Amino acid sequence: MTRFRKTFAALAAVLVVAVAIVVSLTLYQLQKDHVQTVHLIGHLDDADRVDLDVVVIQIDAALQEMSVQVTPMPRGALADELGRFRADTTIDLYGVKPEPILAKAGETISASEVRIAMGGGGMITDYPFDKYRVNIDAAAASGDRPVPMVISLYSLDAFFKILPKIDDEQRGDAIGTVVTVSRSTASLTFALFVMVLMLGLALAAGTAAFYVLSGKRGLIWPANTLMAAVLFAMIPLRNAVPGSPPIGSVIDFGSFFIAETVVALSLICTVLVGYRHEVGNERKDAVQ
User: Fold this and answer.
1) What is the distance between the alpha carbons of residues 215 and 154, in angstroms, rounded to a whole number?
2) Average pLDDT of the segment spanning 212-232
């Protein structure tokens, strides 16, 4: 029976590890697929159009800005034999400082960097559950004539994920899309792991304190060392979460402040009460 239990425990441990690996790799694949997803928005049925490649380079939640790299490409009758613009074309992409992108006829096409404001009521202090909305509005004109457009949107910022939705209020050849920005699967998973880990460390420190205090064991230096190490180790652990959230975020009120308070009180009570017991024991020994 004992041998059977050992074999069963070993198989159970292997199964748990295998399940953990599968879940972890599944999360990685979801993260990878999301980053590689290209969202197409606009007049896909028009052969004569301007394709606008919008690549999200960086999302700054503190400044609530999205930096994108924009590259216009002509299609159909708008392109010459070399794939360049046949006529001068103006592309308007409304950012923090709206400046039209000018594509000269016959010239080599270059990318432009544009900063777009984020909003939607999102705040970085909601970390790691903060969400934002970005309005990406674009229009193109070849000469005095508006031309249809298609936006190819994808992101290179691994800390966030984007989900665009076509703006129902767009008119004519202009394109409008509302992009929801939230923390990526990896960032959210790691932040939640750190929160649970800090609460677990606080529980371990509280258990050690209860063991020392309930048994009136005096000053147990290994237990005190453990609690002191945990107390100061949680600060760099908290600061290791991606995105550098400011103090006062959800991660702080949900775990960090609680964990630090529990560990600090456990250490203080263990030292003070333990010191009292040690002094009492010394007095008893002196009387004897």
Assistant:
1) 60
2) 83
| Alpha helical stretches, state H, the chain | 2-36, 185-214, 221-239, 250-251, 257-287
Give the phi and the psi of residue 65 in degrees, each rounded to 5: -135, 145
As a whole number of angstroms, the distance between CA 67 and CA 122 comes to: 17
What pTM did the predictor assign?
Answer: 0.81
Residue range 151-161, pLDDT digits in tens: 889 888 888 98
Check residue 141 and give its pLDDT: 87
Evaluate if residue 247 carries a pLDDT over 60: yes
Compute the CA torsion angle 74, 79, 83, 86 (nearest 10 deg): -110
pLDDT for res 137: 84
Least confident of 167-176, 194-203, 259-268: 167-176
Distances (CA, A) of 150 to 79, 89, 139, 175, 223: 15, 15, 10, 8, 64
Residue 153, strand partner residues: 39, 54
User: What is the rounded distance in angstroms from the CA atom of residue 267 to the CA atom of residue 8?
Assistant: 40
Contacts 24+ apart (CB under 8 A), 56-61: 56/153, 56/154, 56/155, 56/156, 56/157, 56/160, 56/162, 57/113, 57/156, 57/157, 58/157, 59/118, 59/155, 59/157, 59/159, 59/160, 59/181, 61/118, 61/122, 61/124, 61/127, 61/130, 61/132, 61/243
